[in-house]
Amino acid sequence: MCYFPLDRERLGRLIRSCRKERSLRLKDLQDENISSATISSVERGMKNISFEKITYLCGKLELDVDQFSVFVEVEEKREMKLRNQLNFIEHSMDLFGPDQGLEQLRSFKIDRKSKWLAQYTYLKGRCYFLKQNWEKAKRQLQSTLDLLEAGTELESTNIKAACQYLFAKIAIEEQGDMILAQNWIDLGSQSFVQGGDRGEICYELLLLKAKIYTGQEDWEKALGIVNELWESLDQITNPYSKVDLYRLKAFFWCKQGYLAEATSAVFQGLELAKMSMWREGAVDLLHVLSKIYIEEGDFESAEKVLLQAATHKEKHSHEYRMIQTYLSLGNLYNYQERWSEAEGWLRDAVRKAKNHTNKIYYVMALEALGDCEKGKGEDGEALRTYQSALEQAERNRFVHQSKTSLMKVIQCQEILKKELTFRDLERLYRIVSQEKNELLTTV
């Protein structure tokens, strides 16, 4: 009888796999010498089971413990085949869509003790994420994280960081919760293993954080991340990430007054979006291009670009892109005092933004519509619209938007010769106090 320096967990998996292949239940193998509980402990790799019991169980399954190395080779081949099949499904999902991926996963047989079960549940979660079925996506992704907590065997796959990235995206798209999203991003960055699989996740996490900071108008933090990523442009292979980076870099170049550089970045991004057939990314770039044209005073070109973006109404495109397009067109027409045209686009923007999870779009659309009504001389309507924007901003704790909405409310009340209400004065005091505290903290 050989010395027993065996990897009990691996041998347990082999025994379980052999039993399953023969369609045997635990109680089918139990007898007066070994109980079903002991068999279960062997399969789980428990160290308190004697070598004699393990040898006895292997004998019942016609397995020779002395041939463990052969078993290991067989298991490794089986595991490699399993992993290759899951990788194929992952690529198939990206190429042909989540429905194709789910269909393949549903017909896929995987042992609940397999180390690749975490990848299987991650892929299911990713399919549901792509279908925007947030609840099912969260359940599968949480199952993946629970499985990964049990050991470090799959650390280098970066599945954990990939799950945390998707949780961050869900926090934004389902709830509009930027704080929760940033927490998930930080966890994902901490989990990421350099040199492991899914290397693009580290760039995607940083890009998402930069986009959050940009949306919050925290320009310094956003620009810091964008510049850091720009240094790694050649290492980023995911075309979607590259398009996003070109867009952000162009946005900040435009903001800094480097309009020629911004335009060049937009067109490089558009070329890449065209090659990868990513229309949504192209729409995002068109929004930046319209800002560049506006900065140049070329309103005609800005209008053409935004009207082109407005033609993009694919069923599975994210609604916020359409809201941003309508809002940008409305603001452009407001600036040109083309009030009737502005009102049509802005009412559509308000209608769509009202049901969107990220209420910042709703507040911005209401403010722009109020500007349009004020421009038309409808000050009473404008006041009511600004008040709605203010209520939404306060409800969702948008400090910057609360301030701008309140200022617009006060200006309208002055035009209408209305006295400031005690509530408005209280709001103004709170905003000024908060800004003072933020300034002291910065200093």
From TrEMBL:
<dbReference type="GO" id="GO:0003677">
    <property type="term" value="F:DNA binding"/>
</dbReference>
<dbReference type="InterPro" id="IPR010982">
    <property type="entry name" value="Lambda_DNA-bd_dom_sf"/>
</dbReference>
<protein>
    <recommendedName>
        <fullName>HTH cro/C1-type domain-containing protein</fullName>
    </recommendedName>
</protein>
<dbReference type="InterPro" id="IPR001387">
    <property type="entry name" value="Cro/C1-type_HTH"/>
</dbReference>
<dbReference type="InterPro" id="IPR019734">
    <property type="entry name" value="TPR_rpt"/>
</dbReference>
<feature type="domain" description="HTH cro/C1-type">
    <location>
        <begin position="15"/>
        <end position="68"/>
    </location>
</feature>
<dbReference type="InterPro" id="IPR011990">
    <property type="entry name" value="TPR-like_helical_dom_sf"/>
</dbReference>
